[in-house]
Model the fold of this input.
Amino acid sequence: MDRSGGQALRVLAQFVAGPLVRERLRPHRDWLDVRFCAESDDATFQAELPEAQVLWHVLRPLSASDIERATRLQLIHKLGAGVNTIALDAAAARAIAVANMPGANAPSVAESALLLMLAAMRRLPQLDRATRAGHGWPTDPAPTEQVRDLGACTVGLVGYGNIARTLERILQAIGATVLHTSTRDDGSPAWRPWPDLLTDCDVVSLHLPLTPTTERLLDRAALDRMRPGAVLVNTARGGLVDESALVDALRAGRLGAAGLDVFAVEPVSPDNPLLTLPNVVLTPHVAWQTADTFGRYLDRAVDNCRRLRDGAPLADLVGPGAHG
Done:
């Protein structure tokens, strides 16, 4: 059954499209009407929302009031895996399907996590600034005494889904010992309970969804359990970490460094103290953002739109209405 009534399916995409995205969508223009809106452009978002039948959602929080205004909406498709930015109960109450894209961004986020590990451990930002300033050969003995080869380290993965497993293979290829923790003992020799993983690892990398259970999982007590000089990497969700406690641990030198792509409040505030610390490497929630990942996102998004048009079962449904 064609649920679009013979009209082009109206899609509101919460991102700015470049030429590659538009070219990839060109073959579908006869049945797919995609309107683009920057996540910071709330005026356009609110103007387009009432006519949208499908929302391609990225990061801007989608509230219950937004969903109430979306009177034609049939599908919210998250471009990514985490759906904590969507008012799922409100969508279920309106019988609006919610889908995500598990695994689509795994290669890109895994590579970004590796990038942040190496950049934080090897003091890349400081060395880059010093080299550009013409400071010559470094005289600080700390790199010789403190900087490690990642391949000589033990890395702990918190969460063990698609991204963590992809990263595990990369880390093992360069010689690192890789441990992981998840909700239960999976029988692997590399599994550790959460407290043990913190004490056993030189690097801890977060790969969990943000839920009421995982919020501020890495609190002050957990940070205190980590090895002196350890490195924290977070490409998952900023809310997993108590940022105030993290700042204190980095300032005091209990942690050696951090590589962060995500923050408790996004976009990150200019007065966030993490931005002032020399032992922190920062990126603005772009670990997933590559042409390859976006290609996978578009393929899945278009496929689910086609399913919606044809009345076929939707793929990768999540939330309270997933089985309804």
Remarks:
- Residues 9-104+290-310 form a domain with the Rossmann fold fold (CATH 3.40.50.720).
